[in-house]
């Protein structure tokens, strides 16, 4: 019989890649969306006929209970959330209601109605950072809940502490995509300059399709366990510019300007993901290099802008 | 100076037409949208450069306070809702939070930050449900038949209550069904126009529908957004029923749609079956008496039923011709 997986946040970057992976593995994939008749389909356009889409919202317990009881999925991946850090300063209450209480709602339902379901929580490396924002705190609290409820109620619930992961489906407000889109537009003569903050800010950036595989592997273990998922390498905003512009035959220094309003203090020791435990236990490691990823994004944006 | 309008639900059918209407009148238009990583901006893609979008959520009081405080609107149109009736049975609590309490959050935000703004609440003929009289006017008692209808009744009364308690210019427009080429495919009218266009182009050959005898008072959205605006241009806040006063059956809609596409013998293509999304409780014969709107606002629908069907079918034909 087919295994059933429920994915929250299925129309987002990670959810759509995970859905593709699970469909390849012959799962029945249920996607939870807050209004099924009014969603952005772009990321799941290619696979939408193969998905089962259900209405539900992390804010509405009864909608989660209905869907989980209806399918009693073997695997539940909670990838939905308010994910853009700056926005969490504007909506701290909502950020907590979705990112933290949403997790406890699902875990309570699993405990009471579907204890055999395995649960994956998308934790973020931002929970390890020193100075925090409402997004990171909401994710840290959710992470704590997963650990506590797992222990207390003996649930198969685990969290992937994931460092940044990007792809052609990243939203344009994130710096990687912002740069690949702008470089492409400059190449095509649609824009002239690109304003950025600190070019020397460094992060550990991985490739989203590699990362969703780690999620799936985590739910295959005998015992639930949390894992750090990252590439172990740091790259700067400048590196992104260099790769993106030079792939288009341009010199980034001719086009990139510094906007003081966008500058944030660079971290002295930017966190970098040590995924050695994941490699040892899951046999997981990143497959796609940073450079390959940025080039994939540039080529995608070029194709999209040229052909509408 | 240009007036400012703030619209919730701007990415929806009514919101997008209202935004276009207000832009033509020279308004500055600010739209409130929920943040999602993949948004559905299809309906506003042509005007997105002319409007301002701010983040806000009817579930989140503070985001609404900020939106109104920062935009300083002269007019506030609350069009956001969980609007598909069958969905409201799947998500009754969320429907209440969003469609009912969301109105209170908007009114509170306005009362606290811009009490002299004018407020429009999108009420619905679904509030009449099991109708107490036919046709329905502003004094007809409500008897909603779905969690959506119940939530809308709350939204209506809290609007009236804030008007009377705080002396706000807050009005409720009780709009009967209104359709357009931007209607979602889950609604029966659009389901028909879309299928007819595809049948015409040889892309499909069957159309499955529910009850052919269900009757509704269907109008055309661009006419209706004008009524919303007119209500906020009055000296006194007052609620109005807006509709065509004519009811047509699903079957008539089908006939008119096939005729508009020039396809004879619609019966060959259409099959009637009990739908999956069957309403546990149906609404009755909804038909609007909007004589008060005619008298006070000077409003009447400009677009007749057959014209509406033709517009929808032609838009879908055009769209489907251009898509592979």
Q: In words, what does this structure look like?
A:
- The complex is a heterodimer of chains A (308) and B (324).
- By secondary structure, chain A is an alpha/beta fold.
- Chain A folds into 2 domains: 4-162, NAD(P)-binding Rossmann-like Domain (Rossmann fold), CATH 3.40.50; 175-203 and 233-265 and 288-307, Alpha-Beta Complex (UDP-galactose 4-epimerase, domain 1).
- Chain A has 10 helices and 13 strands.
- Chain A has helices at 13-24, 61-71, 85-90, 92-113, 134-153, 175-187, 208-218, 237-247, 276-282, 290-307, and strands at residues 4-8, 28-33, 52-55, 75-78, 118-124, 157-162, 165-166, 194-196, 202-203, 206-207, 227-229, 235-236, 256-258.
- In chain A, strand 1 (4-8), helix 1 (13-24) and strand 2 (28-33) form a beta-alpha-beta unit.
- Chain A is globular, with a radius of gyration of 20 Å.
- The mean pLDDT of chain A is 94.
- Chain B is of the alpha/beta class and 324 residues long.
- Chain B has 2 domains: 4-178 and 218-242, NAD(P)-binding Rossmann-like Domain (Rossmann fold), CATH 3.40.50; 185-216 and 248-286 and 305-322, Alpha-Beta Complex (UDP-galactose 4-epimerase, domain 1), CATH 3.90.25.10.
- In chain B, the strands form 4 sheets. Chain B has a 7-stranded parallel sheet with strand order 3-2-1-4-5-6-11, with helices on both faces.
- In chain B, helix 1 (13-24) packs across helix 7, helix 4 packs parallel to helix 5 and helix 6 (188-200) crosses helix 10 (305-322).
- The radius of gyration of chain B is 19 Å and the shape is globular.
- Chain B starts with a strand and ends with a helix.
- At the A-B interface, helix 2 and helix 4 of A face helix 2 and helix 4 of B.
- Chain B: Its cofactor is NADP(+).
- Chain B: It catalyses: GDP-alpha-D-mannose = GDP-4-dehydro-alpha-D-rhamnose + H2O.
- Chain B: This is GDP-mannose 4,6-dehydratase.
